[in-house]
């Protein structure tokens, strides 16, 4: 059985590598075709499907300006082709969203929603339009869009997230009574599902933000009554930690200590935070050693030590944090490439790398260069140093920004009240990013336990 599992994993890995190689080959082919077929720098008019294909190849590698040249050819020459127009409008809007030009993104989402509302792209466009308003801190408009989605597409692919996003938008617009009403609606509609758990979790975060400590404790207890947290945005350990924090803020020190102790022996991120809290409250020694035997040294190596230390020291970055990021991003594989076009040890995308390559000392950057060990680490360190400065050395926010975008990390940081590591992580609104931060910060804590700042083994 074990051999069969390993064989399946090997086949999946090989198929993934083949897929990535095919994508790289497609990009090189499309680039060459555009170069040889263009006249005076202008693309020729091709079939709608060929323009769409080339645009999607560029977009998958985050070469958005090149992609938009092909999408524009479709707009100019095939404006009535319903087979390609929804994808074209959606692609253009999403490209501007990736580039954080949210106003332009909204303008194209509006055209898409007006002309093709009942296509999959139209439904997705409506949801992403709401997300653009959130990024612009236009929370009332975001709430209106999410409510529109709920009304138009009660069985839509994003119906659960639209309920939850509506709750958060109302909260950020300080329309707290309406937010509570929608929490009740969501719990009732999605009984005993992860959406119901997430709705109550939203209420807990809202009560903490409003400093309604007793209500926060009451809501945490309601949340702990759910038997299953799988698939939700929270966990039992997180909920217990937030309850303990609310008790502490309410002045109920003894109850807070008892509650922190429930998870203090857990190896989870929140268990480690509870350890830190108890250390401060009770002035006890660090209890991380209780779980130290669970660490397999082989799982926490220090490859590329010279390159990491050189770049990390030059930018005042803890090299152990860099290793934690690298472990999560690529499992230390320089040849790694994601479906979104991120490459190398620290999974840099080409558009991001182009912002920092000169500051890192590398010119004439090509996407394939990001697989170079020294280059990838050096450019990533320039970016990480910028995030560290932006977030005042708050590594949780740096990790969140690295994965989910610094504008989102800033938004989650503003929502975090009180200013506590655990509250910030609880406020992260993307499941992928939250899971990413929990893993990176747990790895970072273990690296700090095992190695000193020069990456020498402590014991």
Characterise the protein shown here:
The chain has 459 residues and is mainly alpha-helical. It has a domain at 300-450: Orthogonal Bundle (Lysozyme), CATH 1.10.530. It has 22 helices and no strands. It has helices spanning 2-37, 48-60, 64-77, 85-98, 102-115, 120-135, 139-152, 159-172, 176-189, 194-209, 213-224, 236-249, 253-263, 269-282, 305-314, 319-330, 350-360, 373-390, 395-404, 406-415, 421-427, 431-450. α10 (194-209) runs antiparallel to α11. The longest helix is centred in the first third of the chain and has 36 residues, at 2-37. The two termini are 37 Å apart. Residues 5-18 and 285-293 have low confidence and may be disordered.
Brief rundown of the structure:
The protein is an all-alpha fold. It contains 22 helices and no strands. It has a domain of 151 residues: Orthogonal Bundle (Lysozyme), CATH 1.10.530.10.
CATH topology of one domain: Lysozyme
Mean residue pLDDT:
93
Distance between the termini: 37 Å
Total DSSP E strands: 0
Biggest sheet overview:
none
Gyration radius over CA: 24 Å
Architecture (CATH level 2) name of one domain: Orthogonal Bundle
β content, as a range? under 5%
Could you say which overall geometry the principal axes of the C-alpha atoms support?
Answer: flat
Total DSSP helices:
22
| Quaternary form | single chain
Order of helices and strands: HHHHHHHHHHHHHHHHHHHHHH
- Helical content band: 55-70%
CATH class of one domain: Mainly Alpha
Supply the helix-strand structural class: mainly alpha
């Amino acid at each position: 059985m074990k051999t069969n599992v390993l064989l399946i994993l090997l086949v999946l890995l090989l198929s993934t590598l083949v897929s990535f190689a095919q994508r790289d080959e497609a990009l090189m082919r499309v680039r060459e075709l555009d170069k040889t077929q263009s006249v005076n720098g202008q693309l020729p008019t091709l079939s709608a499907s060929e323009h769409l294909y080339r645009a999607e190849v560029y977009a998958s590698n985050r070469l958005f300006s090149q992609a938009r040249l092909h999408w524009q050819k479709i707009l100019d020459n095939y404006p009535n082709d319903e087979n390609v127009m929804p994808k074209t409008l959606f692609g253009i809007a999403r490209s501007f969203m990736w580039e954080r030009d949210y106003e332009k993104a909204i303008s194209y989402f509006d055209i898409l929603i007006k002309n093709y509302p009942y296509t999959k792209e139209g439904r997705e466009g409506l949801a992403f339009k709401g997300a653009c308003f959130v990024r612009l801190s236009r929370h009332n408009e975001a709430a209106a869009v999410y409510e529109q989605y709920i009304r138009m597409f009660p069985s839509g692919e994003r119906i659960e997230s639209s309920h939850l996003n509506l709750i958060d938008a109302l909260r950020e617009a300080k329309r707290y009574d309406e937010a509570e009403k929608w929490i009740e609606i969501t719990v009732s509609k999605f009984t005993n599902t992860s959406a119901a758990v997430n709705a109550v979790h939203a209420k807990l975060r809202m009560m903490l933000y409003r400093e309604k400590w007793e209500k926060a404790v009451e809501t945490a207890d309601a949340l702990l009554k759910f038997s299953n947290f799988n698939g939700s945005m929270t966990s039992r350990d997180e909920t217990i930690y937030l309850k303990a924090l609310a008790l502490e803020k309410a002045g109920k020190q003894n109850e807070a200590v008892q509650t922190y102790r429930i998870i203090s022996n857990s190896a989870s991120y929140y268990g480690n935070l509870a350890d830190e809290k108890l250390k401060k409250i009770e002035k006890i020694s660090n209890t991380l050693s209780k779980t130290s035997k669970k660490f397999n040294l082989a799982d926490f190596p220090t490859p590329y030590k010279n390159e990491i230390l050189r770049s990390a020291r030059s930018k005042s970055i803890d090299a152990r944090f860099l290793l934690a990021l690298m472990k999560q991003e690529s499992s230390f594989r320089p040849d790694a490439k994601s479906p979104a076009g991120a490459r190398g040890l620290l999974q840099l995308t080409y558009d991001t790398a182009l912002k920092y390559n000169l500051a890192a000392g590398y010119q004439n950057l090509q996407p394939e260069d990001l697989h170079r060990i020294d280059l990838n680490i050096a450019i990533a360190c320039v970016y990480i140093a910028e995030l560290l400065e932006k977030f005042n050395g708050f590594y949780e926010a740096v990790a969140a920004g690295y994965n989910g975008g610094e504008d989102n990390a800033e938004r989650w940081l503003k929502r975090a009240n009180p200013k506590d590591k655990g509250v910030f992580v609880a406020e992260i609104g993307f499941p992928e990013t939250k899971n990413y931060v929990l893993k990176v910060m747990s790895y970072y804590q273990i690296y700090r336990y095992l190695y000193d700042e020069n990456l020498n083994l402590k014991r």
